[in-house]
Write a structure and sequence with these properties.
Helix content is 62%, strand content 0%. By secondary structure, the protein is mainly α. The longest helix is centred in the C-terminal third of the chain and has 29 residues.
């Protein structure tokens, strides 16, 4: 994984860096990154590695947010490899010295953004319903797919970069991979528990390869949301309907 070059060192900051630096106008966040963003305190607002060593005040958290939003906008427009710390501080209207108060480098900034994405994906993983073999089960599955789509849209730029293992490195990619398998396991359990409940709890869970089926369904779900996130002209609600129908049929075909 690439590291920042020597011209990005804190010593080259042209503006005094303090945690109380007055906030500049906030950069615009890409629309696909803002849609569906859950409200509340974000894990990322604690900052990166340097910021973890101290308690941030309100002004520090505001600066972190400004840098994160600038980084997210740059990653969305230019891709991970092309972005430099120079680009982030220019968009955030701050100094290199201020950047390094909160983040070790560009990779640290990305990992901090990733914390939010993993946090929100973990929340919807825990919310996967028991999908019974009736209309109530179909409706519950469709609602969950809608939540997945909103969460993906909120973090689309980060998730797209995360899918490129050769860019982000094995350690970062591994976090995403572990969540992927945890999510596929939640889908398998929710779908097979619903099928079993429909048979009065009798017999074994349907299918010998429920987790593989769930993983295949999840990969399809991710790819469709990838296409939606890059603004391919797909009808969102119709795609949610079709995805729900396909996943439902994969486990409740009989």
């Amino acid at each position: 994984m690439s590291r920042e070059s020597c011209q990005d060192a804190p010593a080259e900051a042209t503006t005094p860096a303090t945690a109380d630096e007055a906030p500049a106008p906030r950069p615009q966040v890409p629309p696909q990154a803002a849609r569906g963003r859950p409200a509340g305190r974000r894990p990322s607002l604690g900052g990166g590695i340097p910021a973890q060593e101290r308690e941030l005040g309100a002004q520090g958290r505001l600066t972190v947010r400004r840098l994160l939003e600038a980084g997210l906008a740059e990653f969305d427009e230019r891709g991970f490899q092309a972005v430099r710390v120079d680009d982030v501080v220019r968009r955030a209207k701050t100094s290199h010295g201020t950047f390094y108060l909160y983040f070790a480098n560009k990779d640290d900034l990305f990992r901090t953004l990733l914390r939010d994405a993993l946090h929100d994906m973990e929340l919807i993983t825990d919310e996967f319903p028991v999908v019974t073999a009736n209309e109530a089960g179909r409706a519950a599955l469709r609602r969950w797919i809608g939540k997945f789509t909103d969460t993906y849209a909120a973090h689309a730029t980060v998730i797209r970069i995360l899918s490129q293992a050769d860019i982000v490195g094995e350690e970062v990619y591994g976090d995403g991979l572990r969540l992927l398998f945890r999510l596929s396991e939640a889908i398998a359990q929710g779908m097979t528990a619903g099928a079993k409940a429909g048979r009065g709890g009798a017999g074994d869970q349907p299918g010998q390869h429920a987790e593989l089926t769930a993983l295949a369904c999840l990969m399809m779900l991710e790819r469709i949301n990838y296409l939606l996130s890059v603004e391919v002209r797909l009808p969102r609600e119709e795609m949610i309907d079709r995805l729900a129908a396909i996943i439902y049929a994969a486990f409740h075909s009989s």
